[in-house]
Amino acid sequence: MVHGTSIPVELKNVSLSYGSQVALRDLSVAFPLQKTTAVIGPSGSGKSTLIQLVNGLVRPDNGVVSVFGRAIDYAQLSGLRRKIGYAVQGTGLFPHLTVERNISLLARLKKWPVAKIHSRIDVLMGLVDLPLDYKSKYPFQLSGGEQQRVGLCRAMILEPKLFLFDEPFGALDPITRSEIHREFIKIQKISPRTTILVTHDLREAIKLADRLIILNQGEMVQADSPDAILANPASEFVEKFVHMQLDDFRK
Q: Over the stretch 126-152, which tens digit does the pLDDT of each residue have?
């Protein structure tokens, strides 16, 4: 296996339990550079725990989590997190801040020059088709889709090499969700980033990801391209999981 920044995220023999509840069991997986990897599986399979480990929100009981070629230093998490774009369901926007202030928050903390901040905001809002006159609006004045676009801009403000998305589009209606998907695909084509996307929706995973990781009860049961998994499920569980998800969509 190749090491260093060519493998931006790697988990080696990682296990984590919450009391008697096993979240992840001896998981070893690497995430390829500038590709989108979707992590999918039933509720309680360990999806969100995996992404929390990468962000340093939780620490493994055993094993090593490496980001950008180095094992996470839990004494220096703030520095690591500023190199990561993080988006969750519901956007997490600050209601008392304008769109401009929400997007620029991390850049201001990093003491970027004002001109650089304004230029970066204009570029990002253009990428996600947000009108520039929205800068002075507050989150409550925006639709759910517009709020999600602002959340994407905020995640991208520092030009991170790594995005972590934890069910970021789950609360959106189908039409808005499809629009956000198009924006995400466009961003990845223009400026590709290593992205880990946690989702419960197999259709979303197939649409957005270059690679799928399927978890079940804290273990990885298959990792491959969407086409390969659909054509050759590795187990009866994977076959049933895939068929159930796609059958639900067809109903």
A: 888 899 999 999 999 999 889 988 988
